[in-house]
Design a protein that fits this description.
Radius of gyration: 18 Å
Strand order of the largest sheet: 2-1-8-7-3-6
Strand content: 25-35%
Helix content: 10-25%
Number of strands: 14
Number of helices: 6
């Protein structure tokens, strides 16, 4: 299972409007790879760059002070600069979108690793404008179907792009990439507000025993994600039992947060 950091939309599901910050936990997320029509992948040749890119993208998605709104898309970049490019240190609500977030993280990697071309990357670019600048900054453009039609060959830190539409960042290695992160488990802390009744299972199996049913409006903090039986599952340690529990968050193709 390949996991990506993904800017999804405002709390209303659109491109603009709403309050600053991630109001629903679903505006900027980590989720399983999906096909959004990407036609190229951009890979930086140095592993330390890719690793830091994946780390910062994950930390950004986990910080609910970072939300989505194209009208305020550069406020995340500005907040990131103020905290010396540490997404976990952002404590004031801000906004971004897919291209602004990706560009700000490229700048951050350049600042932290002392790579001038990355630091100078234009953080105002739209997805329609990113292809040439990504290659000029040192990213290799990969266009084979094995990179665009599946996440199996992606490395953590790879950037997938459909110009004029969307861009996101892989934060784990694909199972056929030759990297080290191709397993079924992804550690991440997320708080979920349930919209419907959801059963807590003792194993990531639909027919396994269940111990509790969450009701609409109740909240749960998970510490990991995995895919099993065609579903994305959240997992956590039960407070009273100390045993690992599992809950279905949606089908494997849906946003998990």
């Amino acid at each position: 299972m390949t996991i990506v950091s993904n800017c999804s939309g405002t709390e209303y599901g659109g491109a603009t409007g709403g309050a600053a910050g991630d109001q629903t936990g679903g505006e900027v997320v980590v989720r399983p790879w999906y096909d959004f029509g990407q036609n190229a992948v951009y890979r930086y040749p140095e592993p330390q760059v890719r690793a830091l890119m994946a780390k910062l993208a994950t930390e950004t998605a986990q910080n609910d002070h970072v939300g989505y709104d194209q009208n305020g898309r550069l406020s995340f970049r500005d907040a990131l600069r103020r905290v010396n490019y540490d997404p976990t240190a952002i404590k004031t609500n801000c906004e971004t979108d897919c291209s602004a977030c990706t560009s700000a993280l490229i700048e951050a990697v350049g600042a932290l690793l002392g790579i001038q071309k990355l630091y100078d990357f234009d953080s105002t670019l739209s997805t329609r404008e990113m292809d040439g600048p990504l290659q000029a900054a040192g990213f290799q453009k990969l266009t084979g179907s094995k990179y665009t039609d599946t996440g199996d060959y992606l490395l953590a830190g790879d950037i997938s792009l459909d110009p004029g539409h969307h861009v996101n960042i892989a934060v784990t290695d694909g199972s056929k990439s030759g990297g080290s992160g191709g397993g079924e488990w992804f550690a991440v802390t997320q708080t979920i507000t349930f919209k419907s009744k959801s059963r807590v299972h003792v194993a990531p199996k639909v027919k396994s025993a269940y111990t509790y049913t969450y009701k609409p409006g109740e909240m749960l903090t998970i510490d990991g994600l995995l895919i099993a039986e065609g579903y994305t599952w959240g997992t956590y340690l039960g407070a009273s039992s100390g045993e690992r529990r599992y809950i279905i968050l949606g089908t494997a193709e849906r946003v998990v947060k």
